[in-house]
Each structure stands twice: as structure tokens, then as C-alpha cells.
Design goal:
Number of strands: 4
Distance between the termini: 34 Å
Length: about 100
């Protein structure tokens, strides 16, 4: 699994900031849970430019895989409307375990 995920990381390197985790499923001894997260480098660049515009000096940008995993875990249990309010764009997503019409 790790080799395949690292291959994706190599393929996505030019356009995306990419991260992954591989861990044992809770309560299971032989089931692994793999999570990958990719964020457009241009989106990250936009956030960096905004921070610089506010007089901040960011040292690095981190793809927050743990935060994203928490959102995904919650979405499996409940229906959620996710809204990302950006400077120029707003993204809306629905997380649901049931059918969404």
C-alpha cells in the first residue's frame, strides 16, 4: 500500500501538496486504514500570499491530514454541509452516509 501511495505522491508532486497516513483500523488487528489528502499548490499559494499581505511570515504550509481525517470520520456518522469560504471562491460539499437526492 505504501509503495502505491508514494507513487501517487511522485505523480502529483508538480500540482498538489500531498500527504498520507497508514494505520491499523481501530479494534482490528489485521485491517489497515489508508488516507490520502491532496491540496492544489495554487490554493496553498493563495493562502500564503494572503498571510504575507497581513504582515505574517509563514515558514511552511502543512496539509492537515489529521484535521481532514476527523471531518471524514464525522461525515460517516452524520450528515454534514461543509463550507470553505475563501477569498475569491466558496466551496460547498455534502458529507452523508445516506443517498443525497
Amino acid at each position: 500500500i505504501q509503495d502505491k501511495i508514494q507513487q501517487y505522491e511522485t505523480d502529483f508532486k508538480e500540482e498538489l501538496d500531498y500527504d498520507y497516513t497508514i494505520r491499523l483500523q481501530e479494534g482490528e488487528s489485521e485491517i489497515y486504514h489508508a488516507t490520502t489528502v491532496a491540496v492544489s499548490k495554487s490554493i496553498n499559494r493563495n493562502y500564503i500570499d494572503q498571510a504575507i499581505g497581513f504582515g505574517l511570515k509563514p515558514l511552511f504550509v502543512d496539509v492537515q491530514i489529521n484535521a481532514i481525517q476527523r471531518v471524514i470520520k464525522k461525515a460517516w456518522n452524520f450528515d454534514y454541509l461543509l463550507v470553505d469560504i475563501g477569498y475569491e471562491n466558496i466551496s460547498v460539499g455534502i458529507g452523508c452516509t445516506e443517498y443525497v437526492p
